[in-house]
Specification:
The structure is a single chain. The chain is 38% helix and 12% strand. It is α/β, with parallel strands linked by helices and 406 residues long. The protein folds into two domains: 203 residues, Rossmann fold (3-Layer(aba) Sandwich), CATH 3.40.50.1400; 155 residues, Rossmann fold (3-Layer(aba) Sandwich), CATH 3.40.50. The strands form three sheets. Strands 4-3-5-6 form a four-stranded parallel β-sheet, sandwiched between helices. It has a four-stranded parallel β-sheet with strand order 8-7-9-10, with helices on both faces. Helix 2 crosses helix 3 and helix 7 crosses helix 9. The two termini are 22 Å apart. The N terminus is likely disordered.
Length: 406
Amino acid sequence: MSPGGRIGDVPIDTPATDPVVLHASPAAAGGAAHIETPVPYDGILLASFGGPEGQEDVIPFLRNVTRGRGIPDERLEEVAHHYRHFGGISPINAQNRELKTAIEGELARRGIDLPVYWGNRNWGPFLDEAVREAAEAGDTTLLAVATSAYSSFSSCRQYREDFARVLTDTGLAGTVTIDKVRQFFDHPGFVAPFVAGVREAVAGFLAEGVEAAAIHVLFSTHSVPIDDARRSGPRDREWGDGGAYEAQHLAVAEYIMAQVADEYADAATVPWQLVYQSRSGPPTQPWLEPDVCDVIETLPAQGGRAVVIVPLGFVSDHMEVKWDLDTEAMDAAAEAGLRAVRTPTPGIDPAYVAGLVDLVEERLHGTPAADRPHVTDLGPWFDVCRPACCENIRAGFKPAASGIAP
């Protein structure tokens, strides 16, 4: 697709001046929204959040997560108890080891000879270690796969800023390039495990005699500050207070419920909504609402007898899922007298793993945008992020890879 094409109903207009895409492969450096020429990548960079792997890691890890915000250790301890409840160990690193192995297996199955380097933003192995390892092996044209499906500062641009920072800090800028696969919120490989999970949960409650109208499906994702949410996605469309971040979740949730209703006619009357969790800002700062637990408390008064909690914003069962949903939300459901099921995250589901490798192949082969799979009208999303996409209102624009400046 040319820079003047469209994504869903959104026009894509490259600025009249030459775009600047830092640290990009030659194919992506021009700033086209979708790269439709093959790129000879020689390595994949699996980029994730990271997490502590012992009690002594918890506070240093949280310092990394909140760096630059001046939060004292006493306040960090308020969050630390979530990790300490699980022995100071976040599941995320073990899950990423499994995901890396699964991706390597799928690459081998397809005959794609590319190494996978894994690095985290906030805990070891760090991104700079992964990029150095790749460079030392002679793999300098990297394609990043971040373990985050949606558009927002923390789920997309912050990774891109970290790529730029790492290349500068390691002195590898000009030697190593890092492109990034498109946001995959509506790729069928990511969505399929959620469809299966919701279908099974709804069918189970129907089989138990719960009326469809008494089954509530809550699609949960990480809350973000409203000021950041408004700035998620490209600036050439009015998305509303929730920005592209909210719009993407709503579009995927609507698709999932339609798929379930296609198989179970009664499911067409199952009520559903998008809810939020895991907010961490001060009470005076507006964040996306409503909170999942607050909503659960209201369901009995609406005739609710059962709730299906869907971790739509998450790719694996990391701490926000294990604590905020499996602990707090399930406790809220029990207190409300509701039957409750939490559906699976994609994890290493074969459909999800295959979908990630599909995204890699899109860029290896330069697949035309018109031929790229997507299940909502918003996709396929951009290969190269558009100007001013997903600004962090508190810090402004920092140099970022895989997108047109700023």
